[in-house]
Amino acid sequence: MITSICHQLDFNMAYVQELVKDVVPKEMTFCPAKGLENHPAFTLGHLVSGAALTVKYLGGIFELPEGWESLFLRNGPGDPRFPEKDVTKYPSKKELLVELEQQHQKIKELLHNTDIERLEKEAKEWRFYKFMPNLLDCTVFMCINHEAMHLGQLAAWRRAMGKTSALGAL
């Protein structure tokens, strides 16, 4: 199971790199239509914040570059906030990708060094506890489902921008 989660993180990283490979700096914060407010810069940063939370859940230290927590961290479904409109606050595509890769590496290291007994421990503080009652369930959700949902948003953003399929290029 741990190896499968790590493979999914590697796939997600390859996919996200392909999704933004041809996105130029001015497009990173462009919103092409209502419903696509999560532009690439926000989406990448939000994935970074989710990965940092996963590091914390796994017993590591939650750390993000200065200013990123307020810019990218959300409370999940129902959080009414939209991405920051001041585009000068967003880090570059390169900074976002480097930080996402670093957070993924931290998760993989923690997973390989965590006893299965700890992963099977109940996670009652987790908001989706009734569906995913332990730390392993939470980790699978954050590393696979959560990232896939946001990568899907980024794929929809690409379509709205008239860009070609990134998944087809993998």
Strand content: under 5%
Alpha-beta classification: mainly alpha
CATH superfamily: dinb family like domain
Number of domains: 1
CATH class bucket: Mainly Alpha
What's this model, at a glance?
The chain is mainly alpha-helical and 170 residues long.
Keywords:
Four Helix Bundle (Hemerythrin (Met), subunit A); mainly alpha; 6 helices; 170 residues; globular
In terms of topology, how is this protein built?
Blueprint: H1 2-20, H2 40-57, H3 68-72, H4 93-112, H5 116-119, H6 135-160
Folded structure, characterized:
The chain has 170 residues and is mostly helical. It has one domain (2-169): dinb family like domain (Four Helix Bundle (Hemerythrin (Met), subunit A)), CATH 1.20.120. It is 54% helix and 0% strand. It has helices at 2-20, 40-57, 68-72, 93-112, 116-119, 135-160. The longest helix is centred in the last third of the chain and has 26 residues, at 135-160. The model has no long low-confidence stretch (mean pLDDT 94).
